[in-house]
Structures are given as C-alpha cells and as structure tokens.
What does this fold into?
Amino acid sequence: MRVIREQSLYQLTFMPRVFPVNVYMVEEADGLTLIDTGFPYSAKGILQAAGRIGKPIVRIALTHAHGDHIGALDALKAALPDVPVFISARDARLLAGDRSLDADEPGTPIRGGVPKPGKVKTRPDALLRDGDRIGSLLAVAAPGHTPGSMAFLDTRSRTLIAGDALQTRGGVAASGQLRPLFPFPAFATWNKEAALATVRKLIELKPSLLAAGHGRMLKEPLPAMERAVQKG
It folds into this structure.
C-alpha cells in the first residue's frame, strides 16, 4: 500500500504498480472521512493508516457500489460498528445487488463488479443526494460509471474526489473513454454519454486537485479534464 498526502487528503493506493485502486481519507476536525474501501483485503491497511495519522475514522462515504470500491465495507463496519456509511440513494440499490434500471434512465446495461444480492451485509445509514454535505465535503451527483455514482468536493481546498467518474491511470479520461494502458474503468462503465455530461459538470466546480479512483492525484486538472471532454 502506498500513501500520499496532499493538504487534508490522504490517498491510499492498493496494488499501485499492477492495478492501482485508491481509497481516500479526508482529515476533519472530528476525525477522518473515509471515501471508498478498496478490495476485501484492504481493511487492515486502512485501519493501520488511520492509526498512523492519529485520528479515528468517523464516517465512510462511497462513490459507487463496484467491488473494488466497496470490497472492505463489511470488514470495516464490523471493526467500526458506530461509524455511519453514506452512499447515493440510487447506488444503494446496486449495493444490495439490484441491477434494474429506472424507466427514465438510458437502457445500457449496468456493468462492472456489482455484488450479488445479499453478498454485502452492511446497509447504508444515510442516502446521499446531489448537494448534500458530509463535513467539509459537498456531495455531487456524478452518474455515468454507474447510475448513482457520486463525487465529493472538499469546499476548503476545492479538491475533487471523483471516484471512477474520471481516471488518471493510463491518461486522464472520463468514464467510458478507453485508455489502452488502463482500460478497466471503461469496460465497467454503464453509460458513456452520461459520464461525459458528468465531467462537464465537474469542470464547472473548478477543482484545484483531482483525486480519482485509479491513478495518481493531479494538480490543476482543468486543462486535462477539458481535453478529455473534447475527445468525447
């Protein structure tokens, strides 16, 4: 596991050289907000990192319900039973194993490692909607990779934690844009058109730092985000 710090944000990367999967810890006055939980085996490293930082994990927020982002959720909830779990109202259905689409959603199939019904025991404590606040974080609806994907903007620093709405591994790309050096987010994307619309929305937030689910953090990311949208 690799740990990199930028201001109040810690990036924890599992398998950094092979298949980098990032989880993030946002430092707040009352403790740490954990964003995503990585693989099933990631719980130990996450808890150890929090111990080294010297602050407790006080909340868990999920960008979406794919297996490499929720893998350690049950283990962490068992270790931290009083810590609330946040996920979008829409992706809470995926967390429960429901791949069905709403009538007003594009009919492209939901892809990626969605858990089977009943596999994940943890139930969210709060369902997020666009504009909700979690400590210093603004929850931003970011559909495309999954119907209910969320991004989180740290309003103190304008750091954007984007989940898989964007990737930096293999080149900056919106979800659904194939990057041959790291094609996996594209393979797991529900709807490319919705994902491009999301990146246009995220550009309007004028982030100072991009923290994606896969790849290193990127300072001053707007030009790269704009180029990704232009490529379509």
